[in-house]
What does this fold into?
Amino acid sequence: MSFDCDIQFEVEGNLPSESDFQRWVEAALSEFRDEGEICIRVVSPEESQELNHTYRDKDKPTNVLSFPFDIPEGIPIQLLGDLIICAEVVVTEASEQNKALFDHWAHMVVHGCLHLIGFDHIKDDEAEEMENLERQILASLDIADPYRDET
It folds into this structure.
């Protein structure tokens, strides 16, 4: 199993290390892929908002954006895509939801990685499947159920 993670920090602060991101990506993807390349960019609210507005028509920053790479058939490349994570939104959400900060970071990485390989949560049954996978992956990292307090 080999996942090449290009981590780009566009902001500073109490951020996970590159090895944290690597561990979370491997946990998220190892059941589905043997290898792959992923870029994770940790950004400001301004950059997140601009991308969210451009690609999702939502004019506000968001926690994580996933941009899967569509590999043309017959091209032997393992690029899975890009994750854009807004540090400030992750910190705010963790605080508001009374979650450990790095546990929430892990959840956002796992969530984004699952989007990169085709999972979604638009329909209720898809959301349930994706949330169950997130719970299992996070449990393997000794992280509590991120949905435990939601009703």
Remarks:
- The chain has one domain: 2-140.
